[in-house]
Design a protein that fits this description.
Blueprint lengths: L2 H15 L6 E9 L2 E7 L9 H11 L4 E10 L3 E8 L3 E3 L9 E5 L3 E4 L5 E7 L2 E6 L5 H12 L10 H6 L8 E6 L2 E11 L2 E5 L5 E5 L3 E6 L6 H15 L2 H7 L4
Antiparallel strand pairs: 1-2, 2-4, 3-4, 5-9, 6-7, 7-8, 8-9, 10-11, 10-14, 11-12, 12-13
Helix pairs in contact: 5-6
Length: 253
């Protein structure tokens, strides 16, 4: 790779857009109606991006329509794993009880704003119930449109496909970072089930999550078979393009 050429291109792009020009959307996977797991790629010779770089990238790229959940951010050798959400307005759940402000459409689930005619759904975010304005925006279409424009002339070198394969080897006793109830939590897997996992939270509560909700493997069950550990390492290495990070992921608990 010609570093001088890359450097000049990146710097020029950065000045023109106000964000790091080497950041690209490599891959993504929808988590729910308003959230997606996004994998960004960057040029390692330019140094690891900082939190501000990633926030500016989302603000500029998606013009405020998507916001990154920085608590989910994991920066690898040449990629960034992060959850992004539609920038949906929210309000306190208690407002739904004021009939001068809101009328129930489906009690406990959806309400109508009496003044503006907007519909608001009851959602859970970081373990707290609130009202979120319904949106017609499609997060998959928004990300795909931008990603397709970015990779007209190049192919990303990292992908979430290998992460999906790696999840087949996650089992009881493994600890993961996951998107759960609108936020990011560390969970311990208790059993693999069809389409996902049973798990327990840090405070011992039971949880059920889809496979897609698992973002990273934080530690393995010390009793996991060596061949399974090797397969996990292989798939995470392929996904994120970082052998050292993959070794960290499969470190014994």
């Amino acid at each position: 790779m010609n570093f001088d050429r890359v450097y000049k291109k990146v710097v020029a792009a950065s000045f023109a857009t106000g964000v790091r020009g080497d950041l690209d959307i490599a891959d993504f996977q929808k988590l729910d109606a308003i959230s997606a797991h996004v994998l960004l790629e960057y040029e390692p010779t330019m140094g690891r991006p900082k939190g501000d770089d990633i926030e500016r990238f989302f603000a500029k790229t998606f013009e405020g329509k998507l916001v990154p959940l920085m608590a989910s951010c994991a920066i690898k050798k040449n990629s960034v794993s992060i959850v992004a959400k539609l920038n949906v307005p929210t309000r306190e759940l208690s407002e739904s009880q004021d009939k001068t402000k809101m009328t129930p459409i489906i009690a406990g689930m959806m309400y109508l704003d009496n003044s503006l005619g907007d519909h608001w759904e009851v959602k859970e975010q970081d373990g707290k119930k609130l009202l979120a304005k319904t949106s017609k925006d499609n997060i998959e279409q928004i990300i795909a449109a931008r990603r397709n424009r970015m990779f007209v002339t190049q192919t990303p070198s990292v992908s979430l496909a290998s992460v999906a394969t790696a999840k087949e080897w996650i089992g009881a006793g493994d600890k993961v970072k996951a998107y759960f109830k609108g936020g990011i939590q560390s969970l311990e897997i208790t059993a693999a089930i069809k389409g996902g996992f049973k798990a327990k939270t840090a405070d011992g509560k039971e949880a059920v999550i889809a496979k897609e909700a698992v973002l990273d493997l934080q530690a393995q069950n010390a009793e996991k078979a060596p061949n399974e550990a090797a397969k996990l390492q292989k798939y995470f290495e392929e996904a994120f393009g970082d052998k050292n990070y993959a070794k960290l992921l499969v470190k014994k608990a």
